[in-house]
Amino acid sequence: MPVLWGVSFDATAMSGVVVEFLKTAKSFTDRGYRVHLDLGYDIKADKGRFFQEYRHERVPEWVVLDRVDGVAGIAGYDREFVAATLESVRRDESPDTDRVTAALAEAIVRTWEDRGVELVMVENGTLPENVAYTKALYEAIATYGARHDLGRYVLWRDHDLMWQSEPAKYGSFPYPATPPMVNSPHIHYFALHEEARRRTLEWMPHLRNLDVLPNTFTPPSRPGRPDFRAHHGIAPDARLIARCTRIIPQKRIDRDLHLLARLPGTCLFVAGDTEEDPAETARLRALAEELDVNVVFGGVLEPCESAGPGFSVRDLLAHADVVSFLTSYDYESYGNPIGEAIAAGVPYIASRYALYDTVYAGFEAPVLEILDHDLPTAEFARQVHELMTNAERRAEVVAHNRQLGTQTREEADHLVSTLFPPAMGAEVRASVVLPVLNEAANIEAVLLSLRDQEDVDPGTYEIVLVDNNSTDATVEIARRFAETSPVDIHVISEREQGVACARRAGMEFAVRRSRHRKDPGERFYLLSADADCRVDKRWITELLAVMDEDKAAIGVCDYYYNAEHFVGRPRLWDAIQRTLRCRAVTFSLFGGFPDGKGFAVERDAYEDVGGIEIFYQLQNGRFVNHLSDDWDFGIRVRGSGHDIAYAPKSRVEINPRRVNHAIDEVITGRAYGSDGIIVMRDIRPEAPETPQTADLTEAEAVQAWEFSIKDFTPKNTILPVLLTPSFLDEDAVVEFFGEDLAARLGARIAEIKAEMSVVDFVPIHSYKTPTYRLYLEFRDEIFARLRAAVGEDVGFPPPLPECFADVPEARFAEFMKYYCEDRESGEAHNYFGNGGVF
After folding, report:
1. Closest Cα partner for 67 from 94, 93, 40?
2. PANTHER family under this entry (predicted)?
3. CA distances, 355 to each of 195, 332, 335 (Å)
4. Cross-strand bridge partners of residue 322
5. Same CATH topology for 3-212 and 228-407?
6. What is the pTM of this model?
7. 59-86 b/e with 16+ CB inside 10 Å = b?
8. What is the pLDDT of residue 516?
9. Cα 249–164–246 angle (5° rounding)?
10. Residue 271's closest CA among 227, 217, 331, 228?
């Protein structure tokens, strides 16, 4: 059984930090993880528990309290060392901790090896209470992750901003003595809310993989015990205010006592350790006697999740009329008791502390304005009294808060399950990634075509649907479909808009899950599909068969349009078919390049080139995703020496709307933008589709074909040999070009590389200039070879741009170079048009 190792920097048996750890960890127990938790007694100095044995700590029965082996034996590592280190941090001095850090890191790794750890959760690890331990954790994470190829196996969560908001204790911004957060391939960071994320990035602006994991609201798993009031001497008819807290001055429990004085017939139950700060407990008892109020100091209760014999927080909440959180203004940023109240369906009251509105925006509760009134006012007491006695108002507040809390909990659960997905079955050998955006009209048919594949066991592949901010019923339809599908369907989301971002998110999700296959066996494949296309019944079978046979890194399938959608449009149909016939010839020679509508990549090759990379361009003063992530990914794979195979029997039917709703851009060569900006317009109809019946005029047909073939030819006949000149030694390629042309192409490629001082044509745009130059130099000969291989109707090269009319023939190559390299005007991009949507 794999182990989830949790470590809390709080050094408290049952705090809000630990409770939130338990909520998150519980989802992993359902996947078969055994949970081990280090409470941090050997980390934080000021709690006085350094090297203290675990005795009566109350945690759920599915949690094993654990700690790092051998820590007590590390020379010089003790409470005094940690306290002295923290004092250095206060003075913004960098303490010398290298020796202790190295020893701690070794001990952590040894312990994880012994326990069989596969997942780690660090809680409040950025808190600079123990610089040596934080550094050691980073070292251990790097060593252990690399040793076991675990990928991003660490969930590192900072619950609050104490380390940023208490300069007297932790130093001042930019915290020079605090260990900087590390961009690690093994760590995914989480902040509790957007303000914490913003301030973290203000400190660490280059930090990646930082998401918001919000407050969660987990409903109680069992009912409250009916004997709670009687056991604690609370009258059955007394109204009850619950306060779950540490009994320390910063928590301002005195405010609850003054509120109680304004609410006759009400009892306050304080669930907290009365021995943590005996002086504060004594002060509160004296104040309660002075105010003549009914207070029960009930001690530490078991957590809500506990099923043990003792009383739990769940029992208190089941009897409480309201939960109180009247804390200090600058102390809290979270407030776990509020979350527990919302989950249990109990109203709460709070003080407006510094980040209350950030954490609990939208929730309803009486809020004490403590900057105006330090103690509860008569008006605030009136609001609390109404909430406890007005059943209608109480029900409204509970329903509103629960609905909002449920939504937030679902978002958090979805984020964690997406980033730390369940393990993949040993039989699964392929993941089909399907980016979607508002495809409610198509999604069921697309999923049917992916589900009903021939000669492939439903248990050997899965579908990863990536929702890219859909606002229609796409996701709901997909989830309903998944309930009865024999093929597993995972629905995840990608917030950054763009099909490239969504495709990458799905690929990364599949890669993470595939690492946990117990018996990898055959090669593992990532497949890309499109939400508005249909795959043929043997799409997967034929694609993977070719890749297995050729041991190719990428497999490219065939594409076609349904002739029924183009009845009465012979000119348009002819232009489409000529492009696809050319494609079949060149792809059979060179393997082609992947298209998001349908391709596969072997997982190790995917990771070898760093996965799908998102490029950005400026359009109208804004950065936009570059559309050609699939092409650029294929170029990187081929440029890295991997093979691409063409699978002509693996076929995808293209949705005709790709032509119907972009035909004007096709005709003018602007289907993917202009001036080098490769961004396609939204081709989804805003209104219900109407049949497209008008054909192209003869002039439009000529122009559409010319832009299509100008887009196609450089990419598919020249770019492959530019990236892989050894193609020109293959018999089939030599036969296509002819020996003389093949030899001259090879020589010219070498000359251009030397002239441009470029040896790597993989980065985006760097390959375009030489490809355009080679096309313009050899266009007549290449078209002659296409006519011979594809058919005479391919015709001749489209006319040159008018700017060449005045260029002397002897200087054509010179000015052609200037034309292709003129990045300022983008004229070459516009000439080649990016119009090949056929």
Report:
1. 40
2. GLYCOSYLTRANSFERASE, GLYCOSYLTRANSFERASE 2-LIKE DOMAIN-CONTAINING PROTEIN
3. 8, 7, 10
4. 241
5. yes
6. 0.63
7. bbeebeebbbeebeebeebbbebbeebb
8. 63
9. 25
10. 228
Taking alpha carbons only, the member of 792, 778, 764 closest to residue 728 is 778
Q: Find all residues with CB under 8 Å of 634, minimum gap 6, and list them.
A: 554, 556, 593, 594, 599, 644
Q: What is the pLDDT of residues 410-444, one digit of tens each?
A: 777 777 877 777 778 778 999 999 999 999 988 99
Beta-carbon neighbour count of residue 112 at 10 Å? 22
- Measured at the alpha carbon of residue 605, what is the angle toward residues 601 and 608, in degrees to the nearest 5? 140
**Cβ distance 9 to 40 under 8 Å?**
yes
Q: Residue 729 is which amino acid?
A: D
- Please give the backbone phi and psi of residue 404, each rounded to the nearest 5 degrees, phi first: -65, -40
CB 625 within 8 A of CB 505: no
Q: Where are the beta strands (DSSP E) in 395-524?
A: 430-436, 461-467, 488-493
- Distance between CA atoms of 574 and 595, rounded to whole angstroms? 22
Residues 264, 236: contact at Cβ < 8 Å?
A: no
Query: Where does 173-324 have alpha helices with state H?
Result: 194-203, 228-231, 253-261, 278-291, 313-319
Contacts of 198 (CB under 8 A, 6+ apart): none
427-612+630-656 classified as CATH 3.30.413.10? no
602 to 509, 513, 548, 552, 633: CA distances (angstroms): 15, 15, 10, 8, 13
Of the pLDDT bands very low, low, confident and very high (cuts 50, 70, 90), residue 127 is confident
- 715: Cα within 13 Å, side-chain hemisphere: 27
Token pair 């509970």: residue: 398
pLDDT top residue among 666 and 487: 487
CB 248 within 8 A of CB 328: no
Give the count of beta carbons closer than 10 Å to the beta carbon of residue 294: 17
Out of 3.40.50.1970, 3.40.50.2000, 3.30.70.240, 3.40.1190.20, which CATH number does the structure's domain 228-407 have? 3.40.50.2000
Burial of 466 (0-12, 13-18, 19+ CB in 10 A): buried
Residues 596/530, Cβ–Cβ less than 8 Å? yes
Contacts of 567 (CB under 8 A, 6+ apart): none
Are the beta carbons of 606 and 526 closer than 8 angstroms? Answer: yes
How far out from the chain centre does Cα 64 lie? 30
Residue type, 752: I
Q: Are 535 and 652 in contact (CB under 8 A)?
A: yes
Beta pairing, strands 210-212 & 187-191 = parallel
**Token pair belonging to 725:** 């000149």
Which residues have a Cβ under 8 Å from the Cβ of 131 and sit 6 or more positions away? 85, 86, 89, 95, 97, 177, 178, 179
> Model confidence over 26-47: pLDDT tens digits?
888 877 899 999 999 999 988 8
Strands 554-560 and 598-602: antiparallel
Pairwise CA distance, residues 554 & 544, whole Å: 10
What counts of helices (H) and strands (E) characterise the chain?
Answer: 31, 23
How far is the C-alpha of 303 from the C-alpha of 313, rounded, in Å?
Answer: 6
pLDDT of residue 138: 97
For residue 309, whether the previous peptide bond is cis, meaning omega lies within 30 degrees of 0, is no
Identify the CATH number of the domain defined by range 3-212. 3.40.50
User: How far apart are alpha carbons 374 and 773 in whole angstroms?
Assistant: 76
H/E stretch holding 396? helix 391-419
Question: Which pair of structure tokens corresponds to residue 815?
Answer: 């000015």
pLDDT tens column, 610-623 = 888 777 666 677 66
**Residue found under tokens 């983008």:** 826
pLDDT at res. 683: 44
Q: Name the one residue in this structure whose structure tokens are 């530490």.
A: 300
For residues 635 and 528, the answer to whether their CB atoms sit within 8 Å is no
- The domains of the chain are located at 3-212, 228-407, 427-612+630-656, 700-832
Report how far residue 37's alpha carbon sits from residue 8's, in angstroms, rounded to the nearest whole number: 8
